[in-house]
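All the exercises in this workshop are built on plain-text protein records. Sequence and backbone structure share a record, each on its own labelled line. The question running through the whole workshop is how a given chain folds. The record below serves as our worked example for the rest of this section.
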Amino acid sequence: MCSKMVQEGALWALNEINAAGGINGRKLRMITYDTKADVQEAINAFTRMCTRDRVAAIIGPPVANIGIAIAPISENYDVPVLGFAIDDRVTMKDNGQPYKNMFLFQPSARQQGEIMANFAVRERGLKRFGIIYNQANAYSVSLLEPFKNAARAAGAQIVIEVPYQPTDRDFKTMLNKIVSAKVDAIYAPNYTQELILIVQQARAIGFDGQLVCGLDACPPFPALCGPESNGVIYINNITETEPQIQGIIRDYKAKTGNDATNKFFLGYDVMKIIAKVIGEVGDNPVAIRNAVENLKGYQGLTGNITIDPKTHQTKGLEMVMHEIENQAPKMLKRYAVPE
């Protein structure tokens, strides 16, 4: 019940685990369902996993609207969901308590927004921001307020905000408004296909400043966008400069012909965590859930992972800031939410 690349990473880890003898002599098995990006399909798949398949744990979902739909339903079961949707509503109830089975294995929208804002203002000295965002997209909206609040707290100004609709493809008029406001940088927390158009059109109207973007500016974005992507600052779960990550990227490419993106390594880490926990407490879903809730200091490829029992989100997990130069990522700095 996860994106294709998350699924591929989880499967890669599972094959490594089984090739090494499995868990206490038992092989792991992974059941997958294609939700077709449809909320009802995802709910049906989730229910089947919990009732008919009787799985020990679920990986996913990576998409906010699906996670938000599943979260209240997950209270009816005892199967932990190790996911990646960063919207707080996926893991947290309105009363501030966590859903008992929902967990997040990358920094939340609040944490990612704060990381991007603090880096841009404190490390790069950017002071005047324009924002362009998809007002109908939960991911884009979830990254809006955390960035604005953190940027202002660090001494910057949000000069102008421009929302757009999912069907919009011509952003030049919107971008002209932003550029006319004399901004230092444009914050664009948008999905890849929209982001490509936004960046290309921003350059086409003469904006040569920096754009600050979320995870969708990770590779393959630089190659898809072209030379206009140079100067984009973005956040990532990994850096491709680490030898172990380079080795997996190389081996996966050789085997499949495809590139392993950041989501691959999210799936990889979570499958390894599930295997670790099963080795310690067995395959009872409640025991796994309790162990995941109290996970501390797991050193994965995406960082040092600790789950906060109060939020079911990661605590103190760094992300890696990059800048695109010559259509390639350049690692800048590991960065966490400032204490």
In short: The first helix runs from residue 4 to 19. The chain has two domains: 4-106+241-308, 109-236+319-335. The chain has a mean pLDDT of 95. The longest strand covers residues 157-164.
